[in-house]
Design a protein that fits this description.
Belongs to the complex I 20 kDa subunit family. This is Formate hydrogenlyase subunit 7. Helix content is about 40%, strand content about 15%. The protein is an alpha/beta fold. The protein folds into 2 domains: about 30 residues; about 130 residues, 3-Layer(aba) Sandwich (Rossmann fold), CATH 3.40.50. The protein has a 5-stranded parallel sheet with strand order 2-1-3-5-7, with helices on both faces. α4 links the parallel β1 and β2.
């Protein structure tokens, strides 16, 4: 790179930085500011009634998954109540299980349950998870969730509406 090109590049960078300062209204920096004290940064009373769940689909038609997904859409915004999903059972307060337990998913369900720290809650979402909803005689069907785990909450429906899912999860989050 020639000396002239280097000068042009520096000039362009200076103009971009000035533009950024003007747009942002503050000095740009590459240094990160320290976080505030944890006691003032996160109010413990806000997250004291949160509920973090690991969703496990053990063999459903995906109707319950669609309705559960809608709970997290902006129109329902279940996360504003402190209820969220996590990808790891190790970081959850419990399991929310959909579908009939199939032979291929019985072991992963039990693994997820064992990986969830105590105290934990098990929620059967939808009629298939609660009582197999007529699918109990199907090939590869092992049974309802209650035949494998002690279920703490049943949310009925085929599929249950987002409003009823949110109402039941809020009730258990407050307990």
């Amino acid at each position: 790179m020639s000396n002239e090109e280097s000068t042009k590049s520096e000039s362009r960078n200076k103009k971009e930085n000035n533009l950024l300062r003007a747009v942002l209204g503050r000095k740009t920096t590459t240094q990160t500011e320290p976080l505030p004290d944890s006691e003032t940064f996160i109010r413990p009373d806000i997250n004291s009634k949160s509920l973090v769940l690991r969703h496990v689909d053990v063999g459903s038609c995906n109707g319950c998954e669609v309705e559960l997904g809608l709970c997290f859409a902006p129109i329902y915004d279940i996360e504003s109540y402190g209820i969220s999903l996590t990808a790891s059972p190790r970081h959850s307060d419990g399991l929310i299980v959909t579908g009939v337990v199939t032979s291929n998913m019985a072991a992963p369900l039990m693994d997820a349950y064992r990986a969830t720290p105590a105290p934990k809650v098990v929620i059967a979402l939808g009629d298939c998870a609660i009582n197999c909803n007529g699918l109990g005689d199907g090939y590869g069907v092992e049974g309802a969730v209650g035949e494998f785990l002690e279920v703490d909450l049943q949310i009925r429906g085929c599929p249950p509406e987002p409003k009823s899912i949110i109402a039941e999860l809020r009730r258990i989050a407050k307990a």
